[in-house]
Each structure stands twice: as structure tokens, then as C-alpha cells.
Design brief:
This protein is mainly α. The protein is built from nine helices and two strands, in the order ααααβαααβαα.
């Protein structure tokens, strides 16, 4: 692969890293990288060792691990927050990647006695509550 192809694949990978919680439109990501859908999947796998879907799933599970350790959110809320639409799929992929269920992971890795981040803050940080124009207008006037 030449440098231009690697650069385009890296831009696509960066977009997935940035927008990991959003639904993946594989055609749009492939087009942005200058590939057809099928050529993009093959080129991405050759460069990174997994398909774009596998890569994105891994990133989402990694983010879920962080939320399970730190946030006061249910497993279902975390599932949706990290971009899965099915709790069953999320749980199966989580177990395949980590070897334990999300609940088992939380029980083993959540700090004992320390407070979790309140769920509303975790959701706000993850982008689950996009800021509306009214919020921007209201917040811009508070600084003055």
C-alpha cells in the first residue's frame, strides 16, 4: 500500500475513533476515504487486522468498560450510550472481548466505596445530550 492509501485509511479510522457512538454508515466512511464499500473493508482489514465493524465494536466495548468502572449507569444505558442498539448483541460482544459479562466486569473492576460519576454527567460527557441552539444562546450570555 502506498502512503496516500494509508493516509486515507487513517482518516477513516480517525473518523470512527471520533464518532464511535454514532451509527456507522460504512458507505459514507468508505466514500470519505475514497474507496468503494467492499474495497474499503478489504483495505482496512489488511492495514489494521480487523474489519471496520470489528474495529468499531472493539472501541465501543473499550468505552463501555470505562463507563462500567466509573459511571452510575445501568448496563442498558451504557449499551445505548456506546452505540449498540441491542443489549443482547452488546452483552455477547462484551463477553467475547473481555471474557466476562458487563455486570461481572463491573463487579470486579468498579472501585469499592468510591462514588461513581452520576449518570447524567456521564451521558452529557459522552454526547448523549446534544447541546441545542437555545442552550448555546443561554450559556453564551452567562459569561458576561
Amino acid at each position: 500500500m502506498d502512503l496516500a492509501h494509508i493516509r486515507r485509511l487513517r482518516l477513516a479510522k480517525d473518523a470512527m475513533d471520533r464518532d464511535w457512538a454514532a451509527p456507522l454508515d460504512l458507505d459514507a466512511v468508505a466514500a470519505a476515504a475514497g474507496y468503494s464499500r467492499y474495497h474499503f473493508v478489504r483495505a482496512f482489514k489488511a492495514a489494521y487486522g480487523r474489519t471496520p465493524g470489528q474495529y468499531l465494536s472493539r472501541r465501543r466495548i473499550e468505552r463501555a468498560q470505562e463507563l462500567l468502572r466509573t459511571a452510575n449507569l445501568s448496563v442498558t444505558e451504557i449499551c445505548v450510550t456506546v452505540g449498540f442498539s441491542s443489549l443482547g448483541t452488546f452483552s455477547a460482544r462484551f463477553k467475547r472481548q473481555t471474557g466476562v459479562t458487563p455486570s461481572e466486569y463491573r463487579a470486579a473492576h468498579a472501585p469499592r466505596g468510591a462514588g461513581h460519576i452520576p449518570g447524567c454527567y456521564a451521558l452529557l460527557y459522552s454526547g448523549a445530550f446534544p447541546e441545542t441552539k437555545e442552550m448555546k444562546d443561554r450559556n453564551s450570555g452567562e459569561a458576561g
